[in-house]
Amino acid sequence: MEETTTDSDYYNLLNVPKNADLPLIKNAYRQACLQYHPDKHPEDERREFATSMFAKIQAAYDTLSDKNKREIYDLYGVEGLRALTQVSTSHSSLREEVERIKRERQEERQRQRTNAKSKFHVSLNAQSLFCRESRFLEKLRKIELAGMSISQSVQAPLTANGLCTLQGNVLATRGNGVGTLQAKTRYNLSDSNWIEFQVGGGSMTRFSSVFYQRLGKLNFLTVEGHASRKAFTTKPGFALGSSVTFGRHLLPGITGHLSWHVGASSSLSTRVRSVSRISSTSGTLQVARNGLLIAGSYEYVIDKTSKATLQAKFGTGQLSLEYGAEMKFSSYNTFGMRLLIGIPHGVILKIKFSRAGHVYASAIQLSELPTLEASLFGTFVPLTAAWAISKYLINPLLQYTSPAQQEYIKQCLLEKRKEAEFVVNLMADAVKKIIEEEERKQGLIIVKALYGDLNSRNIDWGNPYCPVIDVTIPLQNLVRNSQLHLSSSSKSGIPGIYDCCPAKPKQMKIQYRFRTQIHQCFVEDNKPLSCPKRSHILLS
Fold it and tell me: Would you place residue 3 in the very low, low, confident or very high pLDDT band (cuts 50, 70, 90)?
């Protein structure tokens, strides 16, 4: 059998974390050698797989035990390590190559911080859709373009602690246009404070500065001052203003702010925000010259790709409710819709599509008053259209694979399954000893462990392409001193486990017995896990 480690994870092969020191790596290597050495498997077929596995273990140890090779492997993986070691054969030249790679990576990170963002926004007046006297085509022809705006910003690092942002905005509304150009520079003075300067010109000339200071572990302070002057104004001088914000981390995940603004629109406001794994909630109370404002918002994470939001505002001269949802249908693309109902806004449908920092948005005025007809239209029609497009167009395109690709994937799955089964056979004797030792001291026994797409509806254990596999033996093989530790790497790199559902999210379900009690836990593919834990105990 050809010995290849192209797609191997060296840390998973030795079952060590990425920050493992040399003694831990040596100990893991010795244990792996005792298990996979070819001399322990004299049968021809088992010896062939044992030889292949032993070669992978040896390559993993040779790499992780050498500081230079390990740094290159962490940066570029197996193929990068092979290419560089072929070019640089001596230890000194390899060290120089590592230092050169580090410099290039640092420079590349600096270049990647040059971040370009843009936003294109269109405002439409679609109140004609609810005109009862017109035909449908006439209603569509009467939809008006109320406004348009374009903004573009570019971020570029000045130094390791400095960042410059250049931003331009153009707005056109009913034949009138304005534009601004702003430049902003931020310097990190230390780990606990930074300062920012901004200058802008165009339809408004503005100068401002912001200073941030962290006060201990829980408190922080932000001070801002600005001077602005509108173009073509007859008033002399600049309008001055400033604000001071004090913040404190009240509890884990809860932050409070108290802000005082002085200037043309002076106000005093307080805000509390709570953030958890699946939701975030905030509430704001503001007292200003022109009245009172009470606002609240709630955001709920439905799953990894979608979330729902709800916002409400009540104050002097205004009352509004805004709700919507956002869905991420690929790594870089997000689509969202919101409906704003209130006074004096009327009914406005907001649609937003974003891709890798570029936003395309539209605000559609359905009604000047909060009517039931416009509200129902703005809620159900876009929601139905988005569901249909996602189900019948986007998802089929993302999941489509050609027959040739499907056949190739199936062939690869069969080969990986066969290799994993042979590795499991190689570790069978060692696992039997581990179980006997753990049972003797009532330690950690893996009762059942599954890996793959646990949410799949096509689980058929007789199917060789089943998206879920049994990984009880490979995990028991990793138990040491009644403990199981899995790193944040993909679990498919663990010996005896393979990726049974490529391009799909994978999870692992583990049921184990410790001190005569049954435990159970779930872990995502790229999340670390340690067992046993009290939180895993199944209550009877």
Answer: very low
DSSP state letters, 170-214: EEEETTEEEEEEEEEEEEE-SSSEEEEEEEEEESEEEEEEEEEEE
The string of pLDDT tens digits covering residues 294-342 is: 999 999 988 778 899 999 999 988 999 999 999 887 777 889 999 999 9
Asked if residue 188 lies in contact with residue 161, where contact means CB atoms within 8 angstroms, the answer is yes
Check the CA dihedral 34-35-36-37 and report its sign.
positive
> What's the whole-number average pLDDT of the chain?
85
Place of tokens 């603004």: 261
Neighbours of 231 (CB within 10 A): 12
How does DSSP assign 499-524, residue by residue?
-SSTTS--EEEEEEEETTEEEEEEEE
Cβ burial, residue 167 (10 Å; 0-12/13-18/19+): middle
- The two structure tokens encoding residue 512: 């184990």
Question: Which residue is it, tokens 């085509």?
Answer: 137
Number of other residues whose CB lies within 10 A of the CB of residue 240:
12
Which residue pairs, CB below 8 angstroms and at least 24 apart, start in 366-369?
366/126, 366/127, 366/129, 366/130, 367/127, 367/130, 368/127
Give the domain ranges of the chain: 407-540
Residue 402 DSSP symbol: -
Question: Between β-strands 176-188 and 162-173, what pairing exists: parallel, antiparallel or unpaired?
Answer: antiparallel
**Do residues 318 and 294 touch, judged by C-beta distance below 8 A?**
no
Sign of CA dihedral 418, 423, 424, 429: positive
Tell me the C-alpha distance between 112 and 104, whole Å: 12
Query: What is the average pLDDT across 128-154?
Result: 85
The three-point CA angle 202-145-324 to 5° equals 95
Work out whether strand 239-251 and strand 468-470 pair parallel, antiparallel, or are unpaired.
Answer: unpaired
Please, are residues 35 and 426 in contact by the beta-carbon 8 Å criterion? yes
Other CB atoms within a 10 A radius of the CB of residue 501 amount to 20
Q: At a CB cut-off of 8 Å and minimum separation 6, what does 357 contact?
A: 115, 116, 117, 118
Amino acid at 419: E
| pTM of the full structure | 0.65
Find the angle CA(51)-CA(54)-CA(59) to the nearest 5 degrees. Answer: 125
Residue 242's SS3 state is strand
**In terms of DSSP bridges, do strands 358-367 and 484-486 run parallel, antiparallel, or are they unpaired?**
unpaired
Edge-to-edge order in the sheet of strand 507-514? 468-470, 444-452, 507-514, 517-524
Comparing CA positions, the residue from 460, 451, 446 lying closest to residue 512 is 446
The token pair that represents 346 in the structure block: 């009327």
Contact 1, 52 (CB under 8 A): yes
Q: How far is CA 228 from the centre of its chain?
A: 38
**What CA–CA distance (Å, rounded) separates 99 from 53?**
32
Token reading at 27: 């100990």
Locate tokens 């806004």: which residue? 345
Strand partners, 151: 119, 169
Assess whether pLDDT exceeds 70 at residue 88: no
The SS3 of residue 346 is strand
